[in-house]
């Protein structure tokens, strides 16, 4: 028997395998009880990315698992919810679309978020999946105006604490940390102008806990740079930035495994410092690592485990020789390309710079990124896939003044 929501559009009645809500066995589950898993995709998650979709279904309970699809962030939630449900169903799940979206015609979001039947259906599922779009729509829908949790948000936490999986892509990834990017400006303006609460960042849902900051669309958009001021402003030691069509799987013990197309950057500010006398952004002694697909990281021990096909790079036999420099460190995958060369180079240091339009505002203000191998740095390579993993490279960022014009025709 399907649960009906008479105030909602018929197309969004939970008709894709929804079973009656199960009785709650964990009504009094404490906040510190065992948690479930997270699958955090960095955006642009393709339907044919079998490792990611299969992992979501597996963690939700395997074939036949009920997964609540939240199209809350989407500009066209009806289409987004339907297509996502079809993908999950093709991998063996029994998805149902949760009719909770401000852009869904005929929906009262506040009323739906506190609907006891809707909350019960989410609570009894094995997993939940948040689609991409605008992450602000998710938090606005699931939280009351005073910041308190709605009934559906409480149900999501119950699902998670019971051992279920919370998954999401793009906007659905941003909400995973306690703080999320809100307006999401480009990296360079964020470095130049700093972070403002309520404009650049806002509270997320915090499923990953208080210690890790999450960002998405990472490598393709150079967003590692905008993570740094946000992490410093909110006192995060660890930042996890996930690239497109890739996912970080966070296990109940908080260990992280990367699966999918590309990889993820891990930023560690545990040893970092800033020069407070300077008004421009700067940081010294940060650590940056690149986790390729198949790699694992354990925050509790600080241990990296490369994928099974990786071999440690031999520094006595480097593939790259001579100075290493990137003219646009914020370009598509530029930082990873430079890190990969550094770990397999006769050089101990690589440099990249970031600057804007020579005709734009503050054209003479840029930043220099210096990456340095230290005794703790490691590089790993795969001969089969020609990919690298790079761990614990020191990163320093300082403001620089550019001489204008940057160039002229000859």
From TrEMBL:
This is Cyanophycinase. The lineage of its organism: Bacteria, Pseudomonadati, Pseudomonadota, Betaproteobacteria, Burkholderiales. It is an enzyme of class 3 (hydrolase). It comes from the Bacteria. Its EC number is 3.4.15.6. Keywords: Carboxypeptidase, Hydrolase, Protease. It comes from Massilia orientalis.
């Amino acid at each position: 028997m399907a649960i009906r929501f008479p105030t909602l559009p018929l197309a969004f009645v939970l008709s894709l395998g929804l079973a009656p809500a199960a009785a709650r066995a964990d009504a009094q589950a404490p906040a510190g009880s065992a948690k479930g898993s997270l699958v955090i995709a960095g955006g642009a998650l393709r339907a044919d990315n079998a490792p990611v979709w299969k992992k979501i279904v597996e963690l939700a309970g395997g074939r036949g698992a009920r997964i609540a699809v939240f199209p809350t962030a989407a500009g066209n939630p009806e289409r987004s919810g339907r297509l996502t449900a079809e993908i999950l169903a093709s991998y063996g799940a029994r998805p149902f679309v949760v009719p909770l979206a401000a852009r869904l015609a005929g929906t009262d979001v506040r009323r739906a978020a506190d609907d006891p039947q809707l909350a019960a259906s989410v609570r009894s599922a094995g997993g939940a999946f948040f689609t991409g779009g605008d992450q602000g729509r998710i938090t606005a829908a699931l939280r009351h105006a005073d910041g308190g949790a709605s009934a559906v948000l409480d149900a999501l936490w119950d699902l998670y604490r019971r051992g279920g999986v919370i998954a999401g892509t793009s906007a659905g990834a941003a909400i995973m940390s306690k703080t999320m990017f809100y307006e999401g400006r480009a990296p360079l303006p964020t470095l130049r102008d700093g972070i403002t609460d309520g404009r650049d960042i806002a509270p997320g849902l915090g499923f990953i806990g208080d210690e890790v900051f999450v960002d998405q669309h990472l490598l393709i958009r150079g967003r590692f740079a905008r993570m740094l001021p946000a992490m410093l402003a909110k006192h995060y030691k660890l930042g996890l930035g996930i690239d497109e069509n890739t996912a970080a799987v966070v296990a109940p013990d908080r260990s992280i495994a990367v699966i999918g197309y590309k990889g993820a950057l891990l930023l560690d500010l545990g040893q970092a410092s800033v020069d407070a006398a300077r008004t421009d952004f700067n940081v010294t002694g940060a650590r940056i690592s690149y986790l390729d697909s198949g790699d694992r990281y354990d925050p509790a021990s600080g241990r990296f485990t490369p994928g099974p096909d990786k071999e440690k790079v031999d520094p006595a036999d480097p593939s790259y020789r001579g100075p290493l420099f990137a003219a646009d460190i914020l370009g598509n995958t530029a930082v990873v390309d430079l890190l990969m060369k550094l770990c397999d180079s006769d050089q101990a240091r690589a440099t990249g710079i970031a600057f804007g339009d020579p005709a734009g505002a503050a054209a003479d203000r840029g930043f220099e990124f210096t990456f340095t191998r230290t005794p703790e740095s490691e590089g790993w390579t795969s001969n089969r896939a020609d990919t690298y993993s790079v761990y614990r490279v020191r990163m320093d960022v300082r403001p620089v003044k550019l001489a204008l014009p940057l160039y002229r025709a000859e």
